[in-house]
Design goal:
This protein is an alpha+beta fold. The chain folds into two domains: about 350 residues, Thrombin, subunit H (Beta Barrel), CATH 2.40.10; about 90 residues, Roll (Pdz3 Domain), CATH 2.30.42.10. Helix content is about 15%, strand content about 30%. It is built from eight helices and 23 strands. The longest helix is centred in the N-terminal third of the chain and has 16 residues. It starts with about 25 loop residues before the first helix and ends with a strand. The N terminus is likely disordered.
Length: about 475
């Protein structure tokens, strides 16, 4: 949005020195300090260290005078922060949409920096401080392959150019494995990048920006410590409106969704497989959210993935993809991956209805670190096929995932789980059905130990299971 002109200093003929003009960095610090002070109880002094400006200037601070001529403007990457949206939760008139603004023609992105404008630091809110803090740590990603192209967002992981985003961003929803990738930083630089690795099971990917050493890494929160009702803030470019900031809360935790994969593995995954059979109609449809509203790739892939996610009501709309969901301190709590939109499966576009989903930061960090170290990530495998109890034969007086088959020699078999057992929990997280179970198992690394709660003959018990490795 246009920057508000700053009032010129009044001329004076007095010999006394004029007050020093604030720099963009100083006003940035003032905005953050004011916002954090507003959070503290009136009778208590705000914590001094939290109000201090960072010791090492970021790219935006180093360019302070260039952005201090009109108001207080802090650069923000064009498509930045939030949402990433791939897929399809549907039912009762609700569909999950991919909203990365992919189209048949390569997209054009501006190289000019976008800004978070702070006209009155004294009235700055927590949301203002978060937007300012996160500005340097999010980037816009442009992907091209032939006549196809799309844009998304990414979260900076390191000074030397590692960036976290979604698999569906860098593969154009599974359409290409060798695209041309460019990254636009918050200060307007347009840089070449390459794909380090993708993880279609979690819809996460890492790219590496070439020849840089001065990017600003994001800080990550511990998503295991989140509470329902915590603040959740999204920054991005919905419908091309760069630098848009939206505010909401964490609506639910440990939610599980099933969405179409942008590069799903072929065939069965060797247990815990909930993908629809080739001729079975899945209730979860994949949508390539083109600008013209067509669902060009609606049937391109019938494979699905199950994700453990954070649910938020922060507004997420078409044009965001692979960026950050932030807490009240400006730390990343999730990588947004999908939204539910009111409408039918038959087509048409719809924006945010306040139901968005993000991959928890703990899972995102684990996957990112594994991709950087080895080029790929691992996921747990229980070694059992399951159904919702409402789908399984027999009766159950509890909800959960009913074991239909146990793979000989697999993790479930070794732990003593049997056909007919109803799994009701994984590491203390309630399991209501097959999607919950698959999502929670996939969120864990191969070889990790999980405590499985199950019901057999009406009695509940726990067993520790060492998970196998999902083959992809």
């Amino acid at each position: 949005m246009p920057e508000t002109p700053e009032s010129a200093d009044s001329p004076t003929t007095e010999p006394t020195p004029k007050p020093a003009r604030s720099t963009a960095a100083e006003k940035r610090a003032a905005a953050i300090a004011a916002a954090q002070a507003a959070q503290a109880p009136a009778a208590q002094a705000p914590a001094a260290p939290a109000a201090q400006a960072p010791a090492a200037p970021t790219a935006a601070q180093q360019a302070g005078p260039a952005f201090a001529k009109r108001g207080v403007s802090i650069p923000v990457a064009a498509a930045i922060a939030v949402a990433a949206l791939v897929g399809g939760v549907s039912g009762a008139g609700v569909s999950l949409w991919a909203v990365s603004l992919n189209d048949d023609e390569p997209s054009q992105s501006t190289s000019a920096p976008n800004t978070v404008t702070v006209n009155n630091p004294d009235d700055a809110t927590t949301i203002t401080a978060v937007a300012v803090k996160a500005a340097d740590s999010v980037v816009t990603i442009s992907v091209k392959s032939g006549k196809q192209g799309g844009t998304g967002s990414g979260v900076v992981l390191s000074k030397d150019g590692y960036v976290l985003t979604n698999t569906h961003v860098v593969t154009l929803d599974g359409a290409t494995s060798s695209p041309t990738v460019q990254v636009q930083t918050s200060d307007g630089r347009l840089l070449d990048a390459e794909i380090v690795g993708t993880d279609p099971i979690a819809d996460l990917a890492v790219i590496k920006v070439k020849d840089v050493d001065n990017l600003a890494p994001a800080t990550f929160a511990d998503s295991a410590k989140l509470n329902v009702g915590d603040r959740a803030i999204a920054i991005g470019a919905p419908l091309g409106l760069a630098g848009t900031v939206t505010d909401g809360i964490v609506s639910s935790l440990n939610r599980s969704i099933q969405i179409a994969s942008s590069a799903a593995p072929d065939g069965s995954d060797g247990g815990d497989n909930n993908n629809p059979a080739p001729q079975e109609q899945s209730p979860f449809d994949f949508w390539q959210f083109n600008e013209n509203g067509s669902d060009a790739n609606a049937s391109a892939s019938k494979s699905t993935i199950s994700l453990a996610v954070i649910q938020t009501d922060a507004a997420i709309n078409p044009g965001n993809s692979g960026g950050a969901l932030l807490d009240a301190e400006g730390n990343v709590i999730g990588i947004n991956v999908a939204i539910a939109s009111a409408g039918s499966n038959g087509g048409g576009q719809s924006g945010s209805i306040g139901v968005g989903f993000a991959i928890p930061s703990n899972l995102a960090q684990r996957v990112a670190n594994e991709i950087i170290e080895t080029g790929s990530a691992t996921h747990g495998l229980l070694g059992a096929s399951v159904l919702d109890v409402t789908e399984a034969e027999g009766s159950s007086d509890v909800v959960g995932a009913s074991i239909q088959e146990v793979v000989a020699g697999g993790a479930a078999d070794k732990a003593g789980l049997e056909v007919g057992d109803v799994i009701t929990g994984v590491d203390g997280i309630h399991i209501t059905g097959k999607t919950d179970l698959t999502a929670q198992v996939r969120a864990l690394a191969a070889g990790s130990t999980a405590t499985i709660t199950y019901v057999r003959d009406g009695k509940s018990a726990d067993v520790d299971v060492t998970l196998g490795t999902l083959k992809v």
